[in-house]
Amino acid sequence: MTTVVLMAKECLPGRVKTRLHPPFSLVDAARIAEASLSDTITTLSALPVERRVLCLDGEDAPHLPPGWEVLPQAAGGLDERIGAALDACRGPALVVGMDTPQLSADDVADIGGWPDDVDAWFGPAEDGGFWALALREPRGDLVRGVPMSRPDTGARQRERLEAAGLRVGTLPRLTDIDDAESLRAVTGLLRDGRLTALLRELA
Protein backbone atom coordinates (compact mmCIF):
# COMPACT_ATOMS: atom_id res chain seq x y z
CA MET A 1 0.00 0.00 0.00
CA THR A 2 1.42 3.37 -1.03
CA THR A 3 0.64 6.30 1.29
CA VAL A 4 0.89 10.01 0.63
CA VAL A 5 1.22 12.16 3.74
CA LEU A 6 0.53 15.89 3.59
CA MET A 7 2.09 17.77 6.51
CA ALA A 8 -0.14 20.77 7.18
CA LYS A 9 -0.80 23.50 9.69
CA GLU A 10 -4.21 24.94 10.54
CA CYS A 11 -4.49 28.17 8.58
CA LEU A 12 -5.07 30.73 11.32
CA PRO A 13 -4.06 34.42 11.01
CA GLY A 14 -0.80 35.05 12.80
CA ARG A 15 0.07 31.36 12.83
CA VAL A 16 0.82 30.61 9.17
CA LYS A 17 2.74 32.46 6.47
CA THR A 18 3.61 35.33 8.78
CA ARG A 19 6.56 36.25 6.56
CA LEU A 20 4.04 37.34 3.92
CA HIS A 21 3.14 40.20 6.27
CA PRO A 22 3.85 42.76 4.90
CA PRO A 23 2.84 43.28 2.12
CA PHE A 24 -0.19 41.13 2.95
CA SER A 25 -2.22 41.38 6.12
CA LEU A 26 -2.04 38.45 8.51
CA VAL A 27 -5.60 37.55 7.52
CA ASP A 28 -4.74 37.50 3.82
CA ALA A 29 -1.52 35.59 4.53
CA ALA A 30 -3.64 32.90 6.21
CA ARG A 31 -5.98 32.90 3.20
CA ILE A 32 -2.97 32.36 0.92
CA ALA A 33 -1.88 29.43 3.09
CA GLU A 34 -5.38 27.96 3.02
CA ALA A 35 -5.60 28.26 -0.77
CA SER A 36 -2.14 26.74 -1.15
CA LEU A 37 -3.17 23.81 1.03
CA SER A 38 -6.40 23.35 -0.92
CA ASP A 39 -4.59 23.25 -4.27
CA THR A 40 -2.08 20.75 -2.88
CA ILE A 41 -4.90 18.52 -1.65
CA THR A 42 -6.47 18.62 -5.12
CA THR A 43 -3.22 17.51 -6.75
CA LEU A 44 -2.54 14.75 -4.24
CA SER A 45 -6.12 13.48 -4.52
CA ALA A 46 -5.44 12.57 -8.14
CA LEU A 47 -2.31 10.51 -7.44
CA PRO A 48 -2.57 6.74 -7.89
CA VAL A 49 -2.04 5.83 -4.23
CA GLU A 50 -4.04 3.67 -1.85
CA ARG A 51 -3.93 5.89 1.24
CA ARG A 52 -4.00 9.67 1.73
CA VAL A 53 -3.29 11.23 5.12
CA LEU A 54 -3.52 14.85 6.21
CA CYS A 55 -1.13 15.11 9.16
CA LEU A 56 -2.44 18.23 10.87
CA ASP A 57 -0.95 20.65 13.36
CA GLY A 58 -4.15 22.23 14.67
CA GLU A 59 -7.74 21.54 15.55
CA ASP A 60 -9.89 22.12 12.46
CA ALA A 61 -9.07 20.26 9.26
CA PRO A 62 -9.91 21.82 5.90
CA HIS A 63 -12.52 20.29 3.65
CA LEU A 64 -11.18 17.03 2.26
CA PRO A 65 -12.38 14.92 -0.66
CA PRO A 66 -13.51 11.36 0.07
CA GLY A 67 -10.74 8.92 0.84
CA TRP A 68 -8.63 11.17 3.05
CA GLU A 69 -7.97 10.60 6.73
CA VAL A 70 -6.76 13.11 9.30
CA LEU A 71 -4.11 12.37 11.90
CA PRO A 72 -2.67 14.82 14.44
CA GLN A 73 0.97 15.77 14.18
CA ALA A 74 3.19 14.48 16.93
CA ALA A 75 4.80 16.78 19.48
CA GLY A 76 8.28 18.14 18.98
CA GLY A 77 10.21 19.75 16.17
CA LEU A 78 9.47 19.25 12.50
CA ASP A 79 11.95 16.37 12.30
CA GLU A 80 10.08 14.57 15.09
CA ARG A 81 6.72 15.23 13.45
CA ILE A 82 7.80 13.96 10.04
CA GLY A 83 9.48 10.99 11.69
CA ALA A 84 6.29 10.06 13.54
CA ALA A 85 4.25 10.38 10.34
CA LEU A 86 6.64 8.02 8.54
CA ASP A 87 6.52 5.52 11.39
CA ALA A 88 2.72 5.42 11.04
CA CYS A 89 2.98 4.24 7.40
CA ARG A 90 3.17 0.70 6.14
CA GLY A 91 4.56 0.27 2.67
CA PRO A 92 6.01 2.98 0.42
CA ALA A 93 5.28 6.53 1.58
CA LEU A 94 5.55 10.01 0.12
CA VAL A 95 5.64 12.99 2.50
CA VAL A 96 5.04 16.49 1.16
CA GLY A 97 4.33 19.90 2.68
CA MET A 98 1.69 22.52 2.01
CA ASP A 99 4.02 25.24 0.71
CA THR A 100 4.37 24.13 -2.95
CA PRO A 101 0.91 24.65 -4.53
CA GLN A 102 2.57 24.55 -7.99
CA LEU A 103 3.14 20.82 -7.39
CA SER A 104 1.88 18.68 -10.23
CA ALA A 105 1.47 14.95 -10.69
CA ASP A 106 4.39 15.10 -13.13
CA ASP A 107 6.70 16.28 -10.33
CA VAL A 108 6.26 12.97 -8.51
CA ALA A 109 5.67 10.73 -11.52
CA ASP A 110 9.09 9.11 -11.16
CA ILE A 111 8.01 7.59 -7.85
CA GLY A 112 5.38 5.43 -9.53
CA GLY A 113 6.33 1.77 -9.57
CA TRP A 114 9.40 2.25 -7.36
CA PRO A 115 12.28 1.39 -9.71
CA ASP A 116 14.49 -1.39 -8.42
CA ASP A 117 17.52 0.91 -8.17
CA VAL A 118 15.84 3.55 -5.94
CA ASP A 119 15.12 3.25 -2.21
CA ALA A 120 14.22 6.89 -1.56
CA TRP A 121 13.16 9.95 -3.52
CA PHE A 122 14.28 13.40 -2.44
CA GLY A 123 12.69 16.68 -3.56
CA PRO A 124 15.06 19.63 -3.02
CA ALA A 125 13.71 23.13 -2.41
CA GLU A 126 15.23 26.37 -3.65
CA ASP A 127 15.75 27.64 -0.10
CA GLY A 128 18.01 24.71 0.80
CA GLY A 129 15.31 22.59 2.40
CA PHE A 130 13.21 19.86 0.84
CA TRP A 131 9.59 19.74 -0.29
CA ALA A 132 9.21 15.98 -0.61
CA LEU A 133 10.64 12.78 0.82
CA ALA A 134 9.58 9.33 -0.30
CA LEU A 135 10.78 6.07 1.19
CA ARG A 136 10.20 2.56 -0.07
CA GLU A 137 10.41 1.41 3.57
CA PRO A 138 9.33 4.28 5.85
CA ARG A 139 11.62 4.91 8.84
CA GLY A 140 11.25 7.88 11.11
CA ASP A 141 14.83 7.61 12.33
CA LEU A 142 15.99 8.70 8.89
CA VAL A 143 14.57 12.18 9.60
CA ARG A 144 14.79 12.60 13.37
CA GLY A 145 17.75 14.72 14.37
CA VAL A 146 18.11 16.44 11.00
CA PRO A 147 18.13 20.22 11.70
CA MET A 148 15.13 21.83 10.03
CA SER A 149 14.49 25.31 8.58
CA ARG A 150 18.15 25.93 7.75
CA PRO A 151 19.94 26.56 4.44
CA ASP A 152 21.63 23.16 4.76
CA THR A 153 18.55 21.17 5.81
CA GLY A 154 18.17 19.52 2.42
CA ALA A 155 21.85 18.62 2.18
CA ARG A 156 21.83 17.19 5.70
CA GLN A 157 18.69 15.16 5.02
CA ARG A 158 20.11 13.71 1.82
CA GLU A 159 23.36 12.88 3.61
CA ARG A 160 21.34 11.01 6.24
CA LEU A 161 19.63 8.92 3.58
CA GLU A 162 22.86 8.10 1.78
CA ALA A 163 24.68 7.32 5.04
CA ALA A 164 21.98 4.71 5.72
CA GLY A 165 22.95 3.02 2.45
CA LEU A 166 19.84 4.11 0.54
CA ARG A 167 19.94 4.70 -3.19
CA VAL A 168 18.40 8.15 -3.61
CA GLY A 169 16.59 9.48 -6.65
CA THR A 170 16.08 13.21 -7.16
CA LEU A 171 12.75 14.89 -7.83
CA PRO A 172 12.45 18.33 -9.48
CA ARG A 173 13.62 21.35 -7.48
CA LEU A 174 10.65 23.44 -6.33
CA THR A 175 10.22 26.76 -4.54
CA ASP A 176 8.46 26.88 -1.17
CA ILE A 177 6.19 29.85 -0.61
CA ASP A 178 7.77 31.53 2.41
CA ASP A 179 7.61 35.26 1.68
CA ALA A 180 6.45 37.75 -0.96
CA GLU A 181 9.49 37.12 -3.17
CA SER A 182 9.00 33.36 -3.30
CA LEU A 183 5.26 33.85 -3.85
CA ARG A 184 6.03 35.98 -6.91
CA ALA A 185 8.40 33.29 -8.20
CA VAL A 186 5.70 30.63 -7.88
CA THR A 187 2.75 32.64 -9.20
CA GLY A 188 3.60 32.10 -12.87
CA LEU A 189 3.80 28.33 -12.33
CA LEU A 190 0.37 27.92 -10.77
CA ARG A 191 -2.50 26.17 -12.50
CA ASP A 192 -5.98 27.62 -12.24
CA GLY A 193 -7.05 26.88 -8.70
CA ARG A 194 -7.93 28.51 -5.44
CA LEU A 195 -4.60 30.27 -4.99
CA THR A 196 -4.63 31.73 -8.51
CA ALA A 197 -8.14 33.06 -7.96
CA LEU A 198 -7.22 34.50 -4.57
CA LEU A 199 -4.13 36.26 -5.89
CA ARG A 200 -6.22 37.84 -8.63
CA GLU A 201 -8.62 39.08 -5.98
CA LEU A 202 -5.85 40.46 -3.75
CA ALA A 203 -4.19 42.21 -6.69
UniProtKB/TrEMBL annotation:
<dbReference type="Pfam" id="PF09837">
    <property type="entry name" value="DUF2064"/>
</dbReference>
<dbReference type="InterPro" id="IPR029044">
    <property type="entry name" value="Nucleotide-diphossugar_trans"/>
</dbReference>
<protein>
    <submittedName>
        <fullName>DUF2064 domain-containing protein</fullName>
    </submittedName>
</protein>
<dbReference type="InterPro" id="IPR018641">
    <property type="entry name" value="Trfase_1_rSAM/seldom-assoc"/>
</dbReference>
